[in-house]
């Protein structure tokens, strides 16, 4: 799916009960917004079934995204910073979410294998904090890990890599990504002509 200017809810917890999402869903529906992107550590099977049922019934669409490494809280922090979202957890339950707590970006592009948040209005202070952490890091591994996080944030895009269901599809996606990277590099190097 591809969604422009989505409302994004982020939690470091597993969503075990659809009722925890109802207050924010009701607030959004009251404003005429009928889609919500939810980025969580994991989802209970019943929650996923309810989300699918509501989507098929065209009542309210919740797009559930799952962290590819549930133990890595940095992923949620980085995406929250990129989209200006509040992170919900056991100390700040989902039931207390308001529309102001939701993040947004220009476009969320999600496939079975990966998700990209493009054009976030991120937090520059967070990026500066990461740069200081990278400077203070002792090991090369830690410096490299923080560098990867910074590259995703400072470019305005956070990428979640998951994989592909088949070898041929993986090769196809790799070629598409290589083309996009090269086109972007040349556009940055040589400039862009509007309209062509």
Features:
196 residues, alpha/beta, four-stranded parallel sheet, four-stranded antiparallel sheet
Explain this structure.
The protein has 6 helices and 10 strands, in the order βββαββαβαβββααβα. The strands form 3 sheets. It has a 4-stranded antiparallel β-sheet with strand order 1-8-9-10. Strands 6-4-2-7 form a 4-stranded parallel β-sheet. It is α/β, with parallel strands linked by helices. A hairpin with a 3-residue loop joins strand 8 and strand 9.
**Helix and strand sequence:** EEEHEEHEHEEEHHEH
The value of Rg in angstroms is: 18 Å
The helix fraction, in percent, is 40-55%
Report the principal-axis shape. Answer: globular
- Strand portion: 15-25%
Average predicted confidence as pLDDT: 84
Read across the widest sheet, the strand sequence of neighbours is 1-8-9-10
Counting DSSP H or I runs of 4 or more residues, the number of helices is: 6
How would a textbook summarize the main sheet? 4 strands, antiparallel
Structural class: alpha/beta
- The parts where pLDDT drops under 50 for at least 5 residues are none
Distance between the termini: 26 Å
Number of strands: 10
Brief summary of the model shown:
The protein is 43% helix and 20% strand. It is of the alpha/beta class and 196 residues long.
């Amino acid at each position: 799916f591809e969604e422009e200017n989505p409302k994004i809810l982020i939690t470091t917890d597993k969503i075990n009960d659809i009722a925890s999402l109802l207050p924010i869903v009701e607030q959004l529906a009251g404003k005429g917004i009928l889609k919500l992107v939810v980025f969580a550590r994991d989802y209970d099977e019943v929650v996923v079934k309810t989300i699918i049922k509501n989507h098929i019934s065209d009542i309210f669409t919740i797009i559930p995204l799952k962290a590819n490494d549930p133990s890595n809280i940095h992923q949620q922090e980085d995406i929250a910073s990129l989209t200006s979202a509040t992170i919900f957890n056991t100390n700040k339950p989902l039931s207390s979410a308001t529309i102001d707590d939701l993040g947004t970006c220009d476009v969320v592009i999600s496939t079975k294998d990966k998700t990209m948040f493009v054009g976030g209005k991120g937090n520059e202070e967070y990026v500066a904090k990461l740069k200081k952490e990278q400077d203070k890091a002792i090991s090369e591994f830690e410096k490299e890990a923080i560098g990867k996080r910074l590259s995703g944030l400072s470019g305005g895009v956070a990428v979640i890599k998951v994989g592909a269901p088949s070898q041929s599809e993986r090769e196809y996606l790799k070629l598409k990504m290589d083309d996009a990277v090269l086109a972007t590099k040349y556009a940055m190097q040589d400039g862009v002509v509007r309209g062509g």
